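Fold this sequence, please.
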Amino acid sequence: MKIVAADFIKSCQAREQFPHHDLSEVAFVGRSNVGKSSLINSLLYRRRLAKVSGTPGKTRILNFFLVHTADPRLRSFYLVDLPGYGYARVSKSLRAQWGPMIEGYLTGRPCLRAILLLVDARGLERPDWTTFEWLNEAARPPIVVATKVDKLSHGERRNRLAAIAETLSLSADRPLIPYSSITHEGRDELWREIRAMLGSMT
């Protein structure tokens, strides 16, 4: 995928702040510190477009990025970075605000066309598969991306990825995509999945 331009548009703390447009959106969902911002930067061939932090729970709002490509079937669309789930140190009141906003976005946003669920390649945690099940039932089946594969040894990789695919009942028709934001492994495959998902709905 050739990216012509990619820009941060706005951060939103409430549904009424979401951008108004007729373009498709791709949402990034995952637990805190799974690497959503790093993956967005890698996917868009940028270094600092999405702010990366080593502190879990840094993304506390929905961030919208407008992407323009050279693909005639997919000229423009939005990537949306959602707050990470499972970070206990965030206040209860803030988590209470996130819940309805995020659930409303994932189930009621008309222009949302694809959801990427990011999980750590080193292993699932309970919130990962409960989120996976909820997305399948309440929103739409997600594209599952196993991040940080560069942190696995060659010997660990096959077993860890196979365990994730088996737990989530993934298959060749619905593959698990290994991804490294360091080496950019998986970038082309993930773009193919996104293009197929959005292209089938245009």
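Strands lie at 3-12, 24-30, 62-69, 76-81, 112-120, 143-147, 176-178. The chain has one domain: 3-199.
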